[in-house]
Each structure stands twice: as structure tokens, then as C-alpha cells.
Design goal:
Helix content: 40-55%
Distance between the termini: 115 Å
Number of helices: 26
Number of strands: 23
Number of domains: 5
Strand content: 15-25%
Length: about 675
């Protein structure tokens, strides 16, 4: 039964006009729908309502249930408070396009006795017939939405399978009306994208590409915020720009559709669907290779994805990528007993790393494998250098060719950037000239933009005026090829470069311990399927840090009469280092004496009756050099624990008349330094 006359109890409450449009495009372009929904206010007045409220918080929000609708939630809350007598809407699709929200609204309306009114009639959800009609309308609304989505999706899928669906393409491509997908005619944009791929081939890391391009002040196109008629403007390159170029299959000439998909999650007790989540390549809806001309080949794109995946630190079952550090073989060594990767331990800032298997330690057993890095890394390095030495000359010539090509390409890019900067400076000048001088705020801003553009032009001109790097520093690649070991150990060769070279030749290394022979066994798995076996003598624990015999002799001979600080100074003067290659300090002398049980340091009375050279010179009023001449002449008897150790002189010898006379004779031959009272000093006493 349809209700035509509304009861007074319903009219006494508030009438709510609910206004909604599904997306922002409808809000901007479909003004007629908005107008018709707002006209429902007059319908409410005609029905006899005096208190009318418009809820339009959900303009631009879908009613499919995949997005929050604050306006709808406020409407339901007002109905629970029994403040609403009727809800006015254009049709059922404005209120809800999913069964859950629609049934909730009908349930609340029936509970509080509210009406649902459209342009044709008023419905009472408490009446079975009206409830049936409203339920059918909600079902049809949800069905209609699913049908629309299905038809649109199928049409887009069919067009995408032919490669004709015009998706938003990344920078570097444009949709041509006749040719289809083609390169962007902007030569600077093309060169910048090619430079990203070229540097990734050389560096193997997206972050290193970013750092090198930021160092060279590269820019990358981004959406334009202020220019009319321009699709982008240039900004300093960012990490996102590098990754978007490396990961986008469009640059490899492939047409891809459906790379991302939705995810459904529960938020505050309601299901929410979010979009834009990346999917694995094998789950993409459409992938058409060789669809258009690309900046790289598809094979290189796949290698780039593998390299980016390998760069992720700590992936289970995959070797660690070469990122630098002190451990040359980090991530390449595997345990011969359990097959797990060996971990790297660092004992200190200057100590050599240690490789060890930790799997057994976690289970309470002894370590499977543990050894120092010095001998193992040297053996593996020698094997790699021997393997690549036959191709060293060809590699050197290729490196020289690539270096020259990089220099030429870098200069060409700089010239293109200068051309772009000059255009932007000219454009900024024209805008400033066209501005009304009386509009000081706008004129000042345009003047600042012009000055920045001119400054950028001056920077590029100054950089181009400098001589090319190839002329300033000519690298002799042939000489490097003749001595690979020198090139490997050169100060300019970074650990990152060494690690990458090893990983380009070696796939994996299986490490074990031969306890009977006290040797480390290595099985090198080369790329291509070949294997090599190496055996390295395993040093005894602590052997690589043992103090040399010469240092122990000096410490033993000087302990007692000399302090630890004086012993340390003597060892450093003699050029003797600790087992780890450090200089000596008093604390290290104490540690060494304790470890090797050498007598304690001298007591307070240990040097009574003895003088150092400085003490003897001070007592006689001469220089240390004069005392040394007396020692060399045999006039003064002195002792040394070891060569280059401090001299020891008996204090009683300083009373010998021969020594005193010799010192007096040395003093008479020196220039007079007696101060005359009448002589004025050249320097101020203050």
C-alpha cells in the first residue's frame, strides 16, 4: 500500500535531502544531476515539511561500498536519534549501490517510521508492498552498477588485448594520432631516459644512478603546475624517477595492461577495497612484447629486474649484492655441511672480517665453518684474475671505448640542457616584459624566475667551458690490462667495484674445513657451469694477530728500566707494528706483557742512579746533540737495550772532570748568547 498523505508525526520531524554523485568528473561536468537533486528541497516543502536539511558531503564519492561516505553515515546517525521524518533522493542509486547499505537504511527507516521519497512518490518501509518495491530498487541499483562495470571492463580488456587502449604513457612516449605509440620528440627527454639505463648498466644500482645523476645536476620531467600548454616541467631528478624508468616495461617496447590490482581489507568492521597494488609480471592482464620501439630490449629489461631484486638486502636463498664494505665475499660463501649462507663478523674498525656459519649455533651445536677472510679472499681474487687475464686486453679496449662514449654523451646532454635552459630563460624574460610593472607582486615573482633561469644558463655555460674529462685525465687502459693485480689493488678501485667483478664471474662458493689437513676447501661455481677447487691453509686461532718476535725482544729488554710509554715510542720509531698493523701505545704494551708474561713495569726506584740523554744535557747545561757527541767519542759511557732505544747514562759519570771539561770546551765554541743590558730586543716581552 502506497502512502500518499504523510502523518503529522512524520512532518514534525526533519526532512533530509541526500545529494550524491559518484566521482569528481560528474561533479564538474554533470551539473544537471546536481540541480535536480537540490530541487528536492521544493519537493519536501510541497510535502509539508518545514525543517529541511541538505546533506551533500558525498559529492564525488561512490556508493558501491568501496569508499567511506561521511554524509551517509551522518544520515543514519540522525535516523537512529529519531530526528528524521523522511529521506528525499532522486532515485535509489543515489542512496546506495550495494545491498548492505540499502538494507541498513530500510531497516532503520522501518524502525523509526521514516519515509523514503523520490520525485514520484513516498514509500513507507513499514508496509510490506513498499518494502518489497524499495528492496527491488536497491537490488536493481546494485545489479546495474555491476553490469556497467562489467561491460566497461570487458571493452577495455578487449581493446587492450589488441594494444589499442590508450593508456597514460610514461615520460619519453606520446600517442600519435596516426603512428600510435611513439617516442617523444623532445630530444633532451629521450637522452635523459637513455642516460638512466646507461648508468644502471655501469653501476648496477638505482641509488648509485641517482647519486651520480644528482652530482651531474640532471633534471627529469614532472607534471606542470603553472605552465599552460606544457605537459611537464623539469625538476631535479629523484629516486622515484629512476625507479619508474627502470621498472616500466613500456621503455622495453612492451605494451602492458593490468599491472596493478585491487585489495580488499577490513577497516572498522567494514570491507574496504583499495587499488594500485603491483602484481607479479606473470599475473598482468595484457603483455604485448615488441609492440612499439623501445629505449632498451626486453632481455635487458628482464636483467634489470633481476638486478633490482638482487639488490634487496637479506633475501633468503639469494646472494647479497655487491654494495661495498670490508668483506669481499659477503653473500657468496655457503656452508659445505648445511648449505646455508655464511655470515660476516667484524671484530673492529681495522681487523679483518671473519666468515662463519651460524645455523649450528642457533641449535646449540658447534659452528660448521669459521675462518678468517685474509687468505680466502686472496685465493679467490687470484683465481678470478687468472680467469679473466686472457680477455684483459679486449676488456681494456672496450672500457676505453665506453669511457670516451660516456664523455661524449655527457657533453651532448649538457648541451641539450643548456639549450633547454636558454629557452626557459627567454620564456621567463618575455613573461616579465609582458607583466604590468605596477603589479609589483607578480612582477617580483616573474623577475625571480627569470634570474633563476639565467643563473642556470650561466652554470651550464661554465661547465661546458671546462675541458672534457678525457683530455684532463687520460686513463691508460692498456697498462691496466698488463697488470691486473695492480689495477685490482689501486686506490681508486672501490670494494664495491671488486665485489661486482667477482659476482659477474662467480655464481657461488661452497666452503668447508678439512680438519685433518687443517685446510679450508673452496669449490668455486663459475657462471657457465664450470667449477674450481681451492685449498687454503687454515691459520691457528689468533695467528693473524700474533705479535712479532722482534717486538717481544724489544719489550722484554726494555721492561723494568723504561716505562711502557717509552717502550711504545721506541717500537714506533723502529717501525715495528702490532699484529694487526697498528702503532704501539702504553696500553698495548701492558696488554702484550700480560699476554706473554713479561715482567712488570719499573717501580718508582727502578731508574735511580740513571739519567736519560735529556736529563744529562739539562744537568750539564748543554744540548742533547752535545751529549751524543760525548757518547760517540767514548767520553761518556751509555747503554741501549736495543738499537734505536733511548740511551741510559749513569748519574755519577756526570761528575767526571773529563766530561765537565769536554762540555766546557763545547760551550766556548758556540756563539755568545749573553744578554747585554744596553741591547734592545726586537720582540716585545709581552
Amino acid at each position: 500500500m502506497r502512502s500518499t498523505d504523510l502523518p503529522a508525526a512524520v512532518l514534525a520531524r526533519k526532512a533530509v535531502v541526500y545529494v550524491r554523485q559518484s566521482n569528481s568528473m560528474q561533479v564538474v561536468n554533470n551539473q544537471e544531476s546536481q540541480r535536480r537533486q537540490y530541487e528536492l528541497v521544493e519537493v519536501a516543502r510541497d510535502r509539508g515539511f518545514r525543517d529541511i536539511e541538505v546533506i551533500d558531503d558525498d559529492l564525488g564519492r561512490t556508493a558501491s561500498g568501496a569508499a567511506d561516505r561521511p554524509g551517509f553515515d551522518r544520515l543514519v546517525a540522525m535516523m537512529y536519534e529519531n530526528k528524521v521524518g523522511a529521506v528525499l533522493c532522486l532515485d535509489a542509486t543515489r542512496l546506495a549501490r550495494n545491498g548492505r547499505d540499502w538494507e541498513q537504511l530500510l531497516e532503520v527507516c522501518g524502525f523509526v517510521g521514516a519515509r523514503i521519497i523520490d520525485l514520484k512518490q513516498a514509500y513507507d518501509p513499514t508496509l510490506p508492498n513498499d518494502r518489497l518495491l524499495l528492496g527491488l530498487q536497491g537490488t536493481f541499483a546494485a545489479f546495474e552498477l555491476s553490469q556497467l562495470h562489467h561491460r566497461m571492463s570487458e571493452a577495455a580488456q578487449a581493446k587492450a588485448r589488441r594494444g589499442e587502449l590508450r593508456l597514460a604513457v610514461p615520460p619519453g612516449f606520446i600517442w600519435d594520432r596516426e603512428e600510435g605509440l611513439d617516442f617523444d620528440p623532445n630530444e633532451l627527454l629521450q637522452s635523459t631516459i637513455r642516460e638512466v639505463f646507461a648508468r644502471f648498466r655501469k653501476l648496477g644500482s638505482a641509488r648509485q644512478v641517482l647519486l651520480s645523476m644528482k652530482k651531474d645536476e640532471f633534471h627529469f620531467p614532472g607534471p606542470s603546475a603553472r605552465r599552460k600548454g606544457a605537459s611537464f616541467e623539469w625538476h631535479p631528478i629523484r629516486y622515484y624517477n629512476v625507479m619508474s624508468v627502470l621498472k616500466n616495461p613500456f621503455y622495453a617496447g612492451a605494451y602492458a595492461y593490468g599491472k596493478t590490482g585491487p585489495r580488499t581489507s577490513q577497516v572498522d568492521g567494514r570491507l574496504r577495497k583499495s587499488y594500485g597494488h603491483p602484481k607479479p609480471l606473470e599475473h598482468w592482464n595484457v603483455l604485448i612484447r615488441e609492440h612499439h620501439a623501445g629505449y632498451i630490449q626486453w632481455e635487458e629489461f628482464e636483467r634489470n629486474q633481476e638486478q633490482l631484486a638482487a639488490n634487496n638486502f637479506g633475501q633468503t636463498g639469494r646472494p647479497k649484492s655487491g654494495r661495498g664494505g670490508r668483506a669481499l665475499l659477503a653473500g657468496l660463501l655457503s656452508c659445505a655441511q648445511c648449505g646455508r649462507r655464511l655470515h660476516v663478523s667484524y671484530g673492529g674498525r681495522t681487523s679483518a672480517p671473519t666468515y662463519a656459519c651460524r645455523s649450528a649455533t642457533k641449535e646449540g651445536r658447534a659452528r660448521c665453518v669459521s675462518f678468517g677472510s685474509v687468505g680466502v679472499e686472496a685465493a679467490v681474487t687470484g683465481a678470478v684474475l687468472r680467469a679473466v687475464s686472457p680477455l684483459a686486453i679486449e676488456a681494456a679496449l672496450e672500457a676505453e671505448r665506453q669511457t670516451m662514449e660516456e664523455h661524449r654523451e655527457g657533453r651532448r646532454l649538457m648541451e641539450l640542457e643548456l639549450e633547454q635552459a636558454r629557452y626557459e630563460a627567454s620564456l621567463a624574460e618575455r613573461r616579465y616584459a609582458a607583466c604590468d610593472p605596477d603589479n609589483r607582486l607578480i612582477a617580483a615573482r616573474l623577475e625571480k624566475i627569470w634570474e633563476e633561469a639565467e643563473r642556470r644558463v650561466a652554470d651550464f655555460e661554465a661547465r661546458l667551458a671546462q675541458p672534457p674529462a678525457s683530455c684532463a685525465e687520460a686513463v691508460d687502459f692498456t697498462a691496466l690490462a698488463d697488470d691486473l693485480e695492480a689495477a685490482w689493488s689501486a686506490p681508486g678501485t672501490t670494494m664495491r667495484a671488486r665485489q661486482r667483478l667477482l659476482r659477474s664471474a662467480i655464481e657461488d662458493i661452497i666452503a668447508g674445513i678439512d680438519e685433518a689437513a687443517r685446510e679450508i676447501t673452496l669449490v668455486i661455481h663459475w657462471h657457465g657451469g664450470r667449477h674450481s677447487h681451492l685449498r687454503i691453509t687454515k691459520q691457528e686461532s689468533g695467528a693473524h694477530t700474533r705479535t712479532s718476535d722482534d717486538a717481544l725482544k724489544v719489550i722484554a729488554s726494555m721492561t723494568g728500566p723504561w716505562s711502557d710509554a717509552e717502550i711504545a715510542a721506541t717500537l714506533n720509531r723502529m717501525g715495528i707494528r702490532t699484529g694487526q698493523g697498528n702503532t704501539w701505545t702504553a696500553r698495548r704494551i701492558v696488554t702484550t706483557r700480560s699476554r706473554f708474561r713479561i715482567g712488570a713495569e719499573r717501580s718508582e726506584t727502578a731508574n735511580e742512579g740513571w739519567l736519560t740523554m735529556s736529563q744529562a744535557a739539562e744537568k750539564l747545561g748543554v744540548t742533547n746533540h752535545a751529549i751524543r757527541r760525548l757518547i760517540d767519542g767514548g767520553i761518556v759511557a751509555a747503554e741501549q737495550a736495543v738499537p734505536q732505544a733511548p740511551w741510559r747514562i749513569r748519574a755519577s759519570d756526570m761528575e767526571d772532570p773529563r766530561v765537565i771539561e769536554a762540555c766546557r770546551a763545547q760551550r766556548t765554541g758556540r756563539p755568545c748568547r749573553n744578554r747585554d743590558e744596553k741591547q734592545h730586543s726586537m720582540f716585545s716581552e709581552g
